[in-house]
Amino acid sequence: MAASVFVLSAVRGTAEKYKTEETMGTAIRIAYQAGRDRLAPIMLDERLPGVQVVDADGRIVSTNAALVGRPRMAAFRPSPVAPQATRILCHSPAFPDRCMIVAAFRYQRGDEMWTVYAADDEVPWHVSTPLVAGLLAGSLLLVLLTAFGTYQTVRKALAPVDAMTDTLGVITATDLSQRVPVPKYRDEIRRLAETANQTLNRAEMAVEQQRRFASDASHDLRSPLTAMRTEIEAALLDPHQTDWPQTAEALLDSLERLQALVTDLLQIARLDAGQPPRMEPTDLGELTARELDRRQRKVEVLRDLKGGVVVVGDRLSLARLLNNLLDNGERHAESTLKVTVYRENGTGIVEVLDDGAGIAPEKRELVFQRFTRLDAARSRDAGGTGLGLSIARQIAETHGGTLAIEDSPRGARFVLRLPAVDED
Question: What are phi and psi of 401, to 5 degrees?
Answer without folding.
Answer: -115, -165
